[in-house]
Design goal:
The complex is a heterodimer of chains A (about 290) and B (about 300).
Chain A (H helix, E strand, L loop, with lengths): L1 E8 L13 E3 L5 E3 L34 E7 L1 E5 L5 E3 L17 H4 L15 E7 L33 E8 L3 E9 L8 E14 L5 E14 L10 E3 L28 H7 L4 H6 L8
Antiparallel strand pairs in A: 2-3, 6-12, 7-11, 8-9, 9-10, 10-11
Chain B lengths: L6 E5 L7 E8 L11 E3 L1 H4 E6 L2 E15 H4 L3 E9 L1 E12 L6 E6 L20 E5 L9 E23 L2 E8 L5 E7 L20 E5 L6 E8 L3 H9 L2 E3 L5 E5 L5 E11 L6 E8 L9 H5 L2
Parallel strand pairs in B: 7-11
Antiparallel strand pairs in B: 2-3, 2-6, 4-5, 6-14, 7-8, 7-13, 8-12, 9-10, 9-13, 10-11, 10-12, 15-16, 16-17, 17-18
Chain lengths: ~290, ~300
């Protein structure tokens, strides 16, 4: 536990003003303080804030303001991620709630008992942006014109699963090509990602080696973002201790290759020392030699 | 597989409803009386700062303690402890999941929880809470089991299911059911070490009382020393305005606002027979003479 030490001077909260209204004359005609006057606070720390005349200071609601000693503190939270949850089936609470509680927020409520999964759906988000024209080639037909350019045929579905997925051009003119990738064949307009590649507008960028790349400006629009019935489900979350600290479940593959890295500066020299013949290059370390 | 926990330190944005505040007072560090902790209402004394860019949003981290002068207006030492709110509850059951017999947990009855705290026990909301245990036989000295705690790693509403174990024996396991008012909590550590598989870490017993505490912020202790003098008040004596009344010998020291800070009587003690001066005395005057107002004196 953190310990913070502060010092406060009570003098800062002590009243030192003597309003004229608390003065009176004694029998000798000398001016003295009427200590019974309710406006007299000299030398005291009042419970409520008072002004120099000894009257209570009021807030905007006409209420007396509590006299407080204010100290700022900064609260912190140390957090450690404990790894992944495991999903578990559960029986939903019945009757199912028909409407969300006021101010429903899945982060605050957690998995609210009786809440159907659609409470966790979000409004459809439309994502727009620009990219290169790399995907345009995916929707070309197999034909070329006399100049050798690809021919794009509107409504030609070139996806590998044409019964369910539409990948193809929707329209084309001399300025732009409009096409869809990953649309549902039964609702091409409202599903998939729309691309519009401008034929006469070019953009430049540079690859990792500094080489200049030029491509046709392409805009994309995806209008099915957010949480919906296709990417959301409700499960009871539990923690299995064997997975604490593990970010994702282990994947076991039949071919395991351990790359020792270059933790040791003599590593590469050691590797070379193991190779005596050209045959060793093929056979050393199961064929996974990496120098 | 990626292993290794990651963590960070963040400004806490805990609600004051999840905070407990206690204070103790001692007039000096040498006080021999035992510490008596008195609770304060966090809603009254702990005010979170608002984000200046969005006043309906908590700034995070920064809180102002508004200590009432009626309580904290005495010279001495105040120790203030700000810690996460504790919830006392009795363990309803300790069991395993019917579909995951290696997952052990403790079960609470939501109806036993005060109404204003029941939302903390909804599915998933207790993750990260700390569980501390009270001895099952209390009144035998220290009631709390010291140095023992578990951390809740998940919580879900669950229903007990009886499993037939043969020979008329039956045990109880739980299945997740949101219609239930029982909450199944997994805690860590709860698994047996691999070298001694029967040594399951203690996670509690049915009907045992436990203390559940949130971990929304790190507890803080403040020691506030209330003093009567500091550099400012000492500076009054050195640099502020002063008057000495030659008629009655009243010596007045004003603060920097020209308000009477201290008054003293100045006089000489003389030998009663010879009249020889023996001492010059400056004696603090506790009945303030209001006619020594600095502005009145200098307004000529």
């Amino acid at each position: 536990m953190e310990i913070i030490r502060k010092k406060r001077n009570l003098e800062n909260y002590t009243i030192r003003s003597i309003p004229k209204s608390v003065l009176k004359k004694d029998s000798n005609g000398k001016t003295i303080i009427d200590e019974s006057n309710p406006n007299y606070y000299y030398g005291k720390i009042p419970v409520y804030k008072v002004d120099k005349e000894g009257n209570f200071r009021l807030d905007s609601f006409g209420q007396k303001i509590l006299n407080t000693i204010n100290i700022d503190i900064f609260l912190k939270q140390d957090i450690d991620d404990m790894g992944l949850f495991s999903d578990q089936q559960f029986i939903p609470k019945t009757p199912i709630l028909l409407s969300e509680p006021e101010g429903f927020n899945s982060f605050e409520y957690g998995r609210l008992a009786g809440a159907p999964v659609n409470f966790y759906y979000s409004n459809v988000a439309t994502i727009t942006g620009t990219t290169d024209d790399g995907l345009l080639k995916q929707v070309k037909s197999y034909r070329k014109d006399l100049s050798g350019n690809d021919i794009y045929v509107p409504n030609l579905n070139v996806s590998y699963d044409p019964k369910n997925i539409f990948n193809g051009v929707l329209s084309e003119n001399q300025d732009e090509t409009l096409y869809k990738i990953g649309a549902n064949v039964s609702d091409i307009q409202n599903t998939g990602v729309s691309f519009k590649t401008y034929k006469n507008i070019f953009q430049k960028t540079f690859d990792e080696y500094g080489k200049e790349l030029t491509f046709n400006k392409t805009e994309f629009t995806a209008s099915n973002g957010g949480w919906n019935q296709y990417n959301t489900s409700l499960s009871a979350n539990i923690k299995k201790e064997e997975y604490l600290g593990i970010v994702f479940k282990p994947e076991v593959k039949s071919v395991v290759f351990i790359n020792r890295g270059i933790a040791d500066i003599f590593e590469r020299h050691s590797l070379l020392s193991e190779i005596k013949t050209t045959n060793d290059i093929d056979t050393n370390r199961g064929g996974f030699i990496r120098i | 597989m990626a292993t290794g926990n990651y963590g960070t330190i963040r400004p806490a944005d805990v609600s004051v409803e999840d905070v407990e505040i206690f204070y103790s007072y001692t007039p000096s560090r040498e006080s021999i009386t035992s510490v008596e902790l008195i609770s304060l209402d966090p809603a009254q004394v702990l005010i979170p700062a608002a984000n200046p860019n969005n006043v309906t949003e908590i700034f995070g981290g920064l809180y102002t303690l508004k200590l009432p002068t009626s309580v904290f207006g005495t010279k001495g030492y105040y120790s203030i402890i700000i810690r996460p709110k504790q919830i006392r509850v009795t363990i309803q059951d300790c069991a395993v999941l019917i579909d995951n017999q290696d997952v052990k947990g403790i079960v609470f009855d939501i109806n036993q929880i005060p109404l204003e705290l029941q939302n903390r026990f909804e599915n998933g909301n207790l993750v990260g809470y700390r569980v501390e245990y009270i001895k099952e036989q209390t009144g035998t000295g220290q009631d709390k089991i010291q140095n023992l705690f578990r951390i809740i790693t998940s919580n879900n509403r669950a229903l007990p299911i009886t499993q037939n174990q043969g020979n008329s024996n039956a045990s109880q396991a739980y299945t997740f059911n949101d219609n239930s008012t029982s909450v199944f909590c997994t805690v860590t550590p709860a698994s047996a070490p691999s070298f001694k598989p029967n040594a399951t870490p203690f996670i509690g017993n049915p009907q045992q009382e436990v203390i559940i505490t949130n971990t929304f912020f790190n507890p803080v202790m403040m020691e506030i020393e209330m003093v009567e003098f500091d550099e400012e008040t000492l500076a009054y004596a050195l640099f502020s305005n002063q008057t000495k009344s030659l008629e009655d010998g009243i010596y007045t020291i004003y603060n920097f606002g020209n308000e009477i800070y201290r008054q003293y009587n100045l006089y000489e003690v003389k030998d009663q027979f010879s009249g020889k001066p023996l001492f010059e005395v400056r004696e603090q005057k506790f009945t303030i003479d209001p006619t020594k107002d600095f502005d009145d004196i200098t307004n000529f």
